[in-house]
Design a protein that fits this description.
Length: about 625
């Protein structure tokens, strides 16, 4: 009896195991193929995808191309042109080096490769399916590489089933594309999904690429960072504190042209910004590190996102010092540019000099609305001054309407012309209920932001803004559960611009947003017009709410419509709620208290913030002993 139980796995099985680490979703395929194109010296890369990468991922580049032998060898495990010995791992200047990406992709999809080197008269075509070589033949093509990956996970139903909806997978592709495009600003990029061009921009500066990806307004919200030491050169841009956001911020680290994640650097940056930004807000940053390749280790994870630094603490201190310097200059300098040619000539202050007297001085008793004969002439003036004649205008008759009493003006309006109360008013007139423990006539406003009222156990302090958010959120949720939210058509549409990724998201979310009362039309590549809005929002606040909705759902792009209602209702509630500094009448305060305690969760906003606090009677007694 043979007791040996250990056996060598077939290459096809080993490749599928490796693919589980390297190829997790369509975005992983795009990352690997684009990095190969960058290593091949491409100056233009086009990415074509269908059905969010399930059906087709095609990457076309104008790089060096491959010979027929190299094209075949590229799909063997651990076959690479990037390194030849272990020492090369510490002097890497390429994105790839493992030799695992292509065989891993070939193990889970069908491959159609066409490639030709510059100077060759004919190229080669290679076809592989599920790691099985299906054929190789000469073909006519242009220099470079055209790689088509078809039917991802076609023979692995379990893996294919765990792929998310097309909108979710497209979101991951867009974020991966942003990382690749930011770090390779010298390359022309084009991204096409289902025959629609989502991105297309030419090579340019780092700042131009940021604006192309995240909107031109982003360029005015970031400040340049540039410092160089013997250990590291740090360049890029950091967001100015006043533009920090709770959602939709962009945060990127790069090292030697490679995208990376570094939690320690991120936490240090957030600690630096903490006293400068609003609570729960975060700034955008785009920071590139250039270090000696021998001082970093990129061979930690198959996807090469995690990188270890030999001088991590020192580089962190240099980073924080550079960021503080940039923020200090930005905040102190303001909007004046003293190096500009048109800068004003600021005289040197001389405290001993006498202030010059004006040549002409109007008498303090002069009244331009009196006839010229009634205005005296200043005798003490060294010059003779003659006032211009008063215009022939009857001022009293002109402004007579302004002196009418308001009650008389309203009395002239016919009763049938007075509009009825708007159905979406912010406050109700119903008094507070007895079971809430609130005496509605005993409330007052503190610092124009808090409602103070007695309760059964002591004194209750309510944040008026958060309470109104809670009330409106519940109201909007009930409206959406009962059908489409009432909307109103705008006489003049509100124009706004989105980043390409947000435009793609808005295009797919059109039907769901229409149910929420938003109607939009596209009038350019990334330009949109808001044509109708929910009845409870004005045009300007509706644009703000729409932006907030797109930011909220960008992480888990477009789940089912039922789950999508919550971020829509929350964004609308935040935009329509009263501010934290708006004076309220006693009736309005009573209405907020009454509506709040009808909610199932009156103590917290939908996003988990406390609405009220209670100072109980025992604590008051202890403080006054």
């Amino acid at each position: 009896m043979n007791s040996d139980i250990i056996r060598l796995l077939p290459d096809s099985v080993a490749n599928q195991i490796a693919a589980g680490e390297v190829i997790q979703r369509p975005a992983s395929v795009i990352k690997e193929l684009v990095e190969n194109a960058v290593d091949a010296g491409a100056t233009a890369i086009t990415i074509v995808i269908k059905d969010a990468g399930r059906t087709l991922i095609q990457v076309i580049d104008n790089g060096a191309g491959m010979s027929p032998t190299d094209a075949r060898m590229a799909f063997e495990r651990h076959a690479t042109s990037k390194i030849s010995s272990a020492e090369d791992l510490y002097s890497l200047h390429t994105m790839g080096f493992r030799g695992e990406a292509l065989p891993s992709i070939a193990a889970v999809a069908q491959i159609d490769l066409r490639t030709m080197r510059e100077g060759d008269t004919v190229g080669t075509r290679l076809m592989i399916s599920e790691s099985r070589f299906e054929g190789q033949e000469p073909v006519s093509c242009v220099p470079g590489t055209n790689m088509s990956v078809k039917n991802l996970f076609f023979h692995m139903p379990a893996r294919r089933k765990f792929l998310k909806k097309d909108s979710v997978e497209l979101g991951h592709i867009m974020r991966e594309f942003e990382r690749l495009a930011l770090v390779n600003t010298g390359i022309d990029f084009t991204l096409i999904h289902n025959d629609v061009t989502l991105h297309q921009f030419m090579k340019g500066t780092f700042k131009q690429r940021i604006g192309a990806l995240f909107g031109k307004n982003t360029e005015g919200q970031i400040a340049e960072i540039n410092t160089e030491t013997s250990l590291v050169k740090i360049t890029g841009f950091v967001g100015m504190p006043r533009f920090a956001k709770k959602r939709g911020f962009a945060q990127f680290f790069f090292v030697n042209g490679r995208n990376m994640r570094h939690p320690a650097f991120h936490r240090a940056l957030m600690n630096t910004y903490e006293p400068l930004v609003a609570p729960q807000s975060q700034p955008s940053y785009f920071i590139n590190f250039e270090v000696d390749p021998s001082t970093i280790d990129v061979n930690i994870h198959p996807q090469k996102h995690e990188i270890k630094f030999e001088h991590e603490q020192a580089i962190m201190q240099i980073l924080l010092a550079a960021v503080r310097e940039t923020l200090g200059k930005t905040q102190a300098a303001g909007a004046l540019d003293f190096d500009a040619e048109e800068a004003p000539d600021i005289p040197i202050f001389d405290p001993s000099a006498e202030a010059p007297m004006p040549d002409e001085m109007a008498d303090e008793t002069f009244n331009p609305f009196r006839p010229a004969s009634d205005n005296p002439i200043r005798e003490s003036s060294p010059r003779t001054w003659t006032p211009s004649p008063a215009p022939a205008t009857d001022w009293e008759a002109l402004y007579s309407n302004f002196t009418k009493k308001r009650d008389d003006a309203f009395a002239e309006i016919p009763a049938e012309d007075i509009p009825e109360e708007h159905p979406s008013k912010l406050f109700t007139e119903e008094p507070a209920t007895e079971d809430s423990g609130i005496r509605p006539t005993a409330c007052f406003q503190l610092h124009d932001g808090y409602i103070v009222t007695p309760s059964k156990s002591g004194i209750m302090v309510i944040s008026q803004h958060r309470a109104h958010v809670r009330i409106l959120y519940d109201r909007f949720m009930r409206q959406m559960e009962g059908g489409p939210v009432p909307s109103q058509q705008l006489i003049f549409g509100e124009d706004f611009e989105l980043s390409p990724s947000a435009s793609a998201l808005l295009e797919q979310a059109t039907d769901i947003l229409t149910e929420a009362g938003f109607s939009t039309s596209r009038n350019g590549d990334n330009r949109w017009t808001l044509t109708s809005v929910p009845a409870a929002l004005s045009g300007g606040k509706a644009v703000e709410a729409l932006m907030s909705i797109l930011d909220d759902v960008s992480a888990d792009i477009l789940v089912d419509p039922t789950a999508f209602r919550s971020p829509v209702a929350l964004a609308m509630a935040h935009s329509a709620a009263i501010s934290g500094s708006q004076p309220l009448t006693p009736a309005e305060m009573e209405s907020i208290i009454a509506d709040l305690f009808r909610s199932a969760e009156p103590s917290f906003t939908p996003d988990g913030l406390a609405v009220m606090t209670i100072v109980d009677s025992n604590e008051l007694a202890s403080r006054l002993q």
